[in-house]
Write a structure and sequence with these properties.
The chain is of the alpha/beta class and 237 residues long. The chain has a domain of 164 residues: Vaccinia Virus protein VP39 (Rossmann fold, 3-Layer(aba) Sandwich), CATH 3.40.50.150. It is built from eight helices and seven strands. Strands 3-2-1-4-5-7-6 form a seven-stranded mixed β-sheet, with helices on both faces. The radius of gyration is 17 Å and the shape is globular. The protein binds S-adenosylmethionine. The site of S-adenosylmethionine has 20 residues, from helix 3 and strand 2.
Length: 237
């Protein structure tokens, strides 16, 4: 279904992942996040390298399940459990429908990812989710993820990022707006969404992400993909 949520002049409230958003999420994310499809494809690619038999794969902030589908269809290992977590009941319902035919053992759980105990994990993914977690809770979450990963396991984090250099920040912001225009969003929609999401989606810069991974104990971390102001990081235990 096409995203027209910000197409009318309504009173602006903070953005939430409610039923209205869940209905149009797949269209919204593809038209709003440059490189989204490539991010998902690279999550699929990582399964071969970082997956292991008899382990858990976690998809945190699963939304409609695109990441879990990529983990599932590309998985060459046996006896894996995919645990998809989201705290929006509407997203969980969509995710369950989308994963119903998966051949892997998939559990879709409605819960706060901060309350999950990670265990026996070979892959944990935060695809566009950490940015919605309170900044003061982010290090604790990454620490817990590190503890729950097996040796050689990987954390993949995709995020909108900001830049400490003002000129670069302005350039990337302008290009991102152009990307949304090119995907059919009007000036009204772009401005209204920005106002609605500004207090809710809190970006970090790359340096903050790398410092957080290092503090948690990850021995390797790298930015393996970037498209404008969206980046994917791979951190290996
Ligand atoms: C931008 S979407 C993620 C997109 C998805 N990972 C994908 O690859 O298509 C962010 C999701 O995180 C969920 N979320 C935000 N905070 C959360 C929390 N504390 N616990 C669980 N889910 C959360 C939202 O409900 C939303 O579905």
């Amino acid at each position: 279904m096409r995203d027209q949520i910000f197409g009318q002049e309504n009173d602006l409230v903070d953005f939430t992942f409610d039923a209205q958003v869940a209905d149009v999420f797949d269209d919204m994310v593809r038209r709003s996040v440059p490189g989204y499809q490539a991010m998902i494809e690279m999550i699929g690619l990582s399964v071969k390298t970082y997956g292991q038999d008899n382990t858990n794969y976690y998809d945190l902030g699963a939304s409609t399940g695109a990441t879990s589908v990529a983990l599932s269809v590309n998985n060459p290992y046996t006896n894996n459990r995919i645990i998809a977590v989201d705290n929006s009941p509407s997203m969980v319902k969509k995710c369950q429908q989308n994963l119903a035919l998966s051949e892997n053992n998939v559990d879709v759980i409605c819960a706060d990812i901060n309350a999950i105990n990670f265990e026996n994990a070979s892959i944990i993914v935060l695809n566009l989710t950490l940015q919605f977690i309170s900044p003061k809770e982010r290090q604790t979450l990454i620490n817990k993820i590190y503890q729950g990963l097996n040796k050689g396991g990987a954390l993949i984090v995709s995020e909108k990022i900001h830049f400490s250099d003002d000129n670069k920040q302005q350039l990337m912001t302008n290009l991102h707006v152009d990307f949304k225009r090119a995907n059919g969003y009007s000036e009204l929609e772009i401005a209204a969404k920005r106002q609605s999401i500004d207090n809710v989606l809190i970006t970090d810069d790359k340096k903050t992400h790398f410092q957080r991974f290092e503090k948690a104990g990850f021995s390797i971390s790298t930015c393996h993909f970037q498209c404008l102001n969206f980046a994917s990081f791979l951190a290996v235990k």
